[in-house]
Design brief:
five-stranded antiparallel β-sheet; three-stranded antiparallel β-sheet; alpha+beta; single chain
Length: 250
Amino acid sequence: MKALAPGTVIFHRHRGYGVITAVNLLTGWIAARFGSEQRTLDLNLSTDEVQFADGEAILFRRAPPDRMPHARLMAMVRALHQAGYQKLYLYAWPKPSGLHWRWHLFTGPRDWMQRSWREGWYGSGADYNVNPVMGWGDNPGATTDELIHALAKFDPQGLAQALGKDEDHTAWFAAVCDALLPGYMYSLDMPRVPGAPLTEMPPVPVIPVRASLPAYDGPDLPWPPGWAGLWTQSHVMPLRRPNLTGIPET
């Protein structure tokens, strides 16, 4: 799509050719002046069928954009699993503020704690809100296939390391995608109510990727394969250090 800015020549089927004087891409409204008219006309890019001067339609997304890229990444990872790249994993966890969620794609051995890091294979919803791309040369709103081709072109050596089988994780990931996409994502953290004790392996947290979506009310999701093995016992608070001095602790 061409750039849309003040000074762009447009065509409207009832007004003819005009020039944009103001643009608000957050709402989809523009102001334009047609012919010798002194006053500007407000137009909505979603409903008023505005075109560029060469006849190319100006399309404005009516649905609110995702506030985080995780659902799009999940769809891409599922497609790559189906193509044989099963050693590709998506780790998601919240930032300390709780306002945004980070994402990290990694390949090779499935080690949730000691993950391999490659430049361009991680990001945050905070960055995505400002510029809704992954950073692989992809465009905003790219399809799943377009994201796959962008990643393959961006880092073919890194993607090649995902070739191989991990059937347990692939089955878990496919089931999670079936339950959550396209509106929800998972987060691999173990939240608790302030002051409350940790529960033993709580359900996987689920977060809507758009602010307009209600809270997730579907079935509880299990943790990914290999997650439970990170602890030698149930996920509980650590025991207090034994006091061998005989002096009561304050």
